[in-house]
Amino acid sequence: MKNYKIIDETSPSPMVSVAMLTYNHERYIEEAIESVLMQKTNFPIQLVIAEDCSTDNTRSIIMRYQKQFPSKIKLLLQNENIGAAHNNVDLLSNLSGKYVAALEGDDYWIDPLKLQKQVDFLEENKEYIAVGHQRIVVENDIEKNYFSQDILYTQCVLFKNIINEDYIKFSAGVFNGDTFLFNYLKLFGKVKNLDFVGAVYRMTGFGVYSSIDEINKINKALETYSTLISLQGKFKTKNSRNVFRQIKFSYADNLYAKALYLIPTDKSLALKQFYQFIIFIIQNNLFFKKQFVKSAINFMTRIFSKIKNEAV
Question: Which CATH code for domain 4-210?
Fold first, then answer.
């Protein structure tokens, strides 16, 4: 049984569905919505906003916008607060566009041709599944820097809508939804960042990820990569083998990071974690990677240093 209400007068077949999660974003949501409405395209777009029963004025703001732009804005209104992960599952289940763009309610776009540029690229380059661009990072209303690495970011990405029941089933249980999505997309094709700055990412310090400590961040990442690895049997292409190898590298990196983190507080547990790291890289034939050899040497140096200092 659905636990949300839908208000929808948009086209059933938009070229792009813009997926917007929001909760308690009254300070920012208007700027996010306006940045979607300013997009200049030669195709129809649909903004789908999933609102998670905010305690501020977010819901009244988005309802006002929906009444003003009923052909462009679709609302998914939760009956009670269910959390970002579950709200996202409901949001993904209500996107009908050929392509999907993501924008959270506290971020915004700054290029009115962003969607047009990205759709044009994917339409002309069928081997690509997703395309991103550069972004500006703002922390506490102060512009920090650009992130221009060849990495996909949530507020920057546009991807072919390959969301189905399998994707929703497996992604529903993961904490790092963006990490899961971007790795999953690579199983279907190439990804690329275009050379323009198209979005602003706000680091408010109030996000779910920001609120958890370092060890829990590592544990959540391990869970996410473990879920991705469990999908290996469903994909048999040469490309997928390369993608899963990179996913295993990331899983091993986090096993090692956890072992290092535990050294100051629990040597025994750190050694057990390090043992898991070694077994994993041997079982998956990753030991040849120089990075992991250096990691093993670094860990042993630090653990013996810890033991020596305690013996003094």
Answer: 3.90.550.10
